[in-house]
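User: Here's a structure from my thesis project, written as C-alpha coordinates. My advisor, Dr. K., wants to see whether a designed sequence matches the one we expressed. Can you design one independently, without my sequence as a hint?
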Protein backbone atom coordinates (compact mmCIF):
# COMPACT_ATOMS: atom_id res chain seq x y z
CA UNK A 1 0.00 0.00 0.00
CA UNK A 2 2.84 2.36 0.86
CA UNK A 3 4.61 1.71 -2.46
CA UNK A 4 1.44 2.48 -4.44
CA UNK A 5 -0.27 5.27 -2.56
CA UNK A 6 2.59 7.39 -1.18
CA UNK A 7 4.36 8.24 -4.47
CA UNK A 8 7.15 5.67 -4.13
CA UNK A 9 6.63 3.85 -7.44
CA UNK A 10 7.13 5.04 -11.02
CA UNK A 11 3.92 5.66 -12.94
CA UNK A 12 5.26 4.40 -16.30
CA UNK A 13 7.11 1.20 -17.14
CA UNK A 14 10.59 1.30 -18.70
CA UNK A 15 10.05 2.24 -22.35
CA UNK A 16 6.32 2.64 -21.73
CA UNK A 17 4.11 5.67 -22.19
CA UNK A 18 0.93 4.55 -20.41
CA UNK A 19 0.35 6.33 -17.10
CA UNK A 20 -0.53 3.87 -14.35
CA UNK A 21 -2.95 4.93 -11.66
CA UNK A 22 -2.15 4.15 -8.04
CA UNK A 23 -4.71 1.34 -8.19
CA UNK A 24 -2.88 -0.23 -11.13
CA UNK A 25 0.49 0.20 -9.39
CA UNK A 26 -0.88 -1.51 -6.29
CA UNK A 27 -2.21 -4.45 -8.33
CA UNK A 28 1.11 -4.89 -10.14
CA UNK A 29 3.21 -4.51 -6.99
CA UNK A 30 0.99 -6.81 -4.94
CA UNK A 31 1.12 -9.55 -7.60
CA UNK A 32 4.91 -9.27 -7.75
CA UNK A 33 5.30 -9.51 -4.00
CA UNK A 34 2.93 -12.47 -3.72
CA UNK A 35 5.08 -14.18 -6.37
CA UNK A 36 8.19 -13.59 -4.24
CA UNK A 37 6.41 -15.19 -1.27
CA UNK A 38 5.57 -18.18 -3.48
CA UNK A 39 9.21 -18.43 -4.56
CA UNK A 40 10.32 -18.38 -0.92
CA UNK A 41 8.03 -21.33 -0.26
CA UNK A 42 9.92 -23.26 -2.92
CA UNK A 43 13.46 -22.25 -1.94
CA UNK A 44 13.13 -22.43 1.85
CA UNK A 45 13.84 -26.17 1.86
CA UNK A 46 17.29 -25.49 0.39
CA UNK A 47 18.10 -22.34 2.38
CA UNK A 48 16.11 -21.53 5.52
CA UNK A 49 17.44 -17.97 5.57
CA UNK A 50 15.24 -17.13 2.55
CA UNK A 51 12.44 -14.72 3.48
CA UNK A 52 10.44 -12.14 1.50
CA UNK A 53 11.71 -8.55 1.58
CA UNK A 54 8.91 -6.18 2.57
CA UNK A 55 11.06 -3.07 2.86
CA UNK A 56 9.83 -0.03 0.95
CA UNK A 57 12.03 2.33 -1.06
CA UNK A 58 11.72 5.86 -2.41
CA UNK A 59 10.92 6.31 -6.08
CA UNK A 60 13.87 5.35 -8.29
CA UNK A 61 15.25 2.86 -5.74
CA UNK A 62 14.42 -0.82 -5.26
CA UNK A 63 15.86 -4.00 -3.81
CA UNK A 64 18.88 -5.19 -5.80
CA UNK A 65 17.84 -8.84 -5.98
CA UNK A 66 14.56 -10.59 -5.22
CA UNK A 67 16.08 -13.63 -3.49
CA UNK A 68 19.53 -14.98 -2.65
CA UNK A 69 19.48 -18.75 -2.26
CA UNK A 70 22.64 -20.68 -1.34
CA UNK A 71 24.68 -17.84 -2.81
CA UNK A 72 22.71 -17.80 -6.08
CA UNK A 73 20.87 -14.66 -7.22
CA UNK A 74 17.23 -15.18 -8.20
CA UNK A 75 14.97 -12.73 -10.06
CA UNK A 76 11.27 -13.53 -9.60
CA UNK A 77 8.80 -12.49 -12.30
CA UNK A 78 5.03 -12.82 -12.09
CA UNK A 79 2.02 -13.10 -14.34
CA UNK A 80 -1.68 -13.89 -14.05
CA UNK A 81 -2.77 -17.51 -13.78
CA UNK A 82 -3.36 -17.80 -17.53
CA UNK A 83 -0.10 -16.06 -18.50
CA UNK A 84 2.07 -17.89 -21.02
CA UNK A 85 4.96 -15.44 -21.37
CA UNK A 86 7.93 -14.33 -19.32
CA UNK A 87 8.23 -10.63 -20.23
CA UNK A 88 11.19 -8.31 -19.59
CA UNK A 89 11.19 -4.67 -20.66
CA UNK A 90 14.02 -4.24 -23.19
CA UNK A 91 15.02 -0.84 -21.79
CA UNK A 92 16.02 -2.55 -18.53
CA UNK A 93 18.52 -5.13 -19.85
CA UNK A 94 21.87 -4.90 -21.65
CA UNK A 95 23.48 -7.39 -24.06
CA UNK A 96 25.23 -9.18 -21.16
CA UNK A 97 21.96 -9.90 -19.39
CA UNK A 98 22.53 -7.25 -16.74
CA UNK A 99 19.70 -5.25 -15.17
CA UNK A 100 20.70 -1.76 -16.29
CA UNK A 101 19.31 0.32 -13.36
CA UNK A 102 21.55 -1.66 -10.94
CA UNK A 103 24.82 -1.57 -12.90
CA UNK A 104 27.54 -0.02 -10.74
CA UNK A 105 25.19 0.21 -7.77
CA UNK A 106 24.25 -3.29 -6.65
CA UNK A 107 23.52 -6.77 -7.98
CA UNK A 108 22.76 -6.54 -11.70
CA UNK A 109 23.18 -10.14 -12.90
CA UNK A 110 21.03 -13.09 -11.89
CA UNK A 111 21.79 -16.79 -11.96
CA UNK A 112 18.14 -17.69 -12.56
CA UNK A 113 14.92 -15.93 -13.58
CA UNK A 114 11.80 -17.64 -12.26
CA UNK A 115 8.22 -17.12 -13.50
CA UNK A 116 5.33 -17.53 -11.04
CA UNK A 117 1.64 -17.42 -11.99
CA UNK A 118 -0.81 -15.97 -9.47
CA UNK A 119 -4.56 -16.44 -9.04
CA UNK A 120 -6.83 -14.59 -8.54
CA UNK A 121 -5.81 -11.51 -10.49
CA UNK A 122 -5.48 -8.48 -8.23
CA UNK A 123 -6.17 -6.30 -11.28
CA UNK A 124 -9.45 -8.09 -11.88
CA UNK A 125 -10.45 -7.86 -8.21
CA UNK A 126 -10.02 -4.10 -8.27
CA UNK A 127 -11.58 -3.70 -11.71
CA UNK A 128 -14.72 -5.57 -10.60
CA UNK A 129 -15.11 -3.01 -7.81
CA UNK A 130 -14.29 -0.03 -10.05
CA UNK A 131 -11.12 0.66 -8.07
CA UNK A 132 -8.35 -0.27 -10.52
CA UNK A 133 -8.13 3.21 -12.03
CA UNK A 134 -8.45 5.01 -8.69
CA UNK A 135 -5.76 7.22 -7.21
CA UNK A 136 -6.91 6.59 -3.64
CA UNK A 137 -8.39 3.46 -2.05
CA UNK A 138 -9.22 3.08 1.62
CA UNK A 139 -6.46 1.02 3.20
CA UNK A 140 -8.72 -0.94 5.55
CA UNK A 141 -11.07 -1.88 2.73
CA UNK A 142 -8.19 -2.92 0.49
CA UNK A 143 -6.64 -4.98 3.29
CA UNK A 144 -9.91 -6.82 3.87
CA UNK A 145 -10.38 -7.42 0.15
CA UNK A 146 -6.95 -8.99 -0.22
CA UNK A 147 -7.17 -11.04 2.98
CA UNK A 148 -10.55 -12.46 2.01
CA UNK A 149 -9.07 -14.11 -1.09
CA UNK A 150 -7.46 -17.53 -1.29
CA UNK A 151 -4.23 -16.77 -3.17
CA UNK A 152 -2.83 -19.62 -5.21
CA UNK A 153 0.22 -19.96 -7.43
CA UNK A 154 2.09 -22.27 -9.71
CA UNK A 155 5.69 -22.24 -10.87
CA UNK A 156 5.67 -21.76 -14.64
CA UNK A 157 9.41 -22.47 -14.84
CA UNK A 158 12.78 -20.76 -15.03
CA UNK A 159 15.69 -19.87 -17.29
CA UNK A 160 19.40 -19.35 -16.65
CA UNK A 161 21.45 -16.20 -17.11
CA UNK A 162 23.09 -17.73 -20.20
CA UNK A 163 19.66 -18.33 -21.71
CA UNK A 164 18.61 -14.77 -20.92
CA UNK A 165 21.64 -13.49 -22.81
CA UNK A 166 20.65 -15.72 -25.75
CA UNK A 167 17.12 -14.29 -25.73
CA UNK A 168 18.47 -10.72 -25.68
CA UNK A 169 21.13 -11.16 -28.36
CA UNK A 170 18.75 -13.04 -30.65
CA UNK A 171 16.14 -10.31 -30.20
CA UNK A 172 13.18 -12.33 -29.00
CA UNK A 173 11.14 -9.12 -28.85
CA UNK A 174 7.49 -8.15 -28.65
CA UNK A 175 7.30 -4.60 -30.04
CA UNK A 176 5.52 -1.80 -28.27
CA UNK A 177 1.81 -1.66 -29.27
CA UNK A 178 1.73 -5.32 -30.34
CA UNK A 179 -1.44 -7.17 -29.32
CA UNK A 180 -1.55 -10.13 -26.93
CA UNK A 181 -4.57 -12.42 -26.66
CA UNK A 182 -6.43 -10.18 -29.12
CA UNK A 183 -7.07 -7.60 -26.41
CA UNK A 184 -3.94 -6.57 -24.48
CA UNK A 185 -1.75 -3.88 -26.06
CA UNK A 186 1.92 -3.95 -25.12
CA UNK A 187 2.73 -0.59 -23.52
CA UNK A 188 6.49 -1.15 -23.81
CA UNK A 189 8.86 -3.24 -25.90
CA UNK A 190 9.65 -6.52 -24.15
CA UNK A 191 11.89 -9.52 -24.48
CA UNK A 192 9.77 -12.64 -24.22
CA UNK A 193 10.05 -16.35 -23.52
CA UNK A 194 7.10 -18.75 -23.82
CA UNK A 195 6.31 -20.51 -20.56
CA UNK A 196 6.39 -23.81 -22.45
CA UNK A 197 10.06 -23.16 -23.27
CA UNK A 198 11.09 -22.60 -19.65
CA UNK A 199 12.78 -25.32 -17.63
CA UNK A 200 10.53 -27.23 -15.25
CA UNK A 201 10.94 -26.10 -11.66
CA UNK A 202 11.86 -29.64 -10.60
CA UNK A 203 15.11 -29.26 -12.55
CA UNK A 204 15.98 -26.25 -10.42
CA UNK A 205 15.28 -28.30 -7.32
CA UNK A 206 17.74 -30.91 -8.57
CA UNK A 207 20.38 -28.22 -9.11
CA UNK A 208 20.08 -26.95 -5.53
CA UNK A 209 19.96 -30.41 -4.02
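Assistant: Designed independently from the structure alone:
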Amino acid sequence: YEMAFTDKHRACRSGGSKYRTNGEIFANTFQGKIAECAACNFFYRFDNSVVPDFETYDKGRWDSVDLTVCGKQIAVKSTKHFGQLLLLETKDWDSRGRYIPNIGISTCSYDYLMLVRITPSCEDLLKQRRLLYSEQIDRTYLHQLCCNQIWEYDYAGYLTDEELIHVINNEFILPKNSILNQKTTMDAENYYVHAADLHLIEQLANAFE
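When you compare it with your expressed construct, this may help: The CA atoms of residues 180 and 186 lie 7 Å apart.
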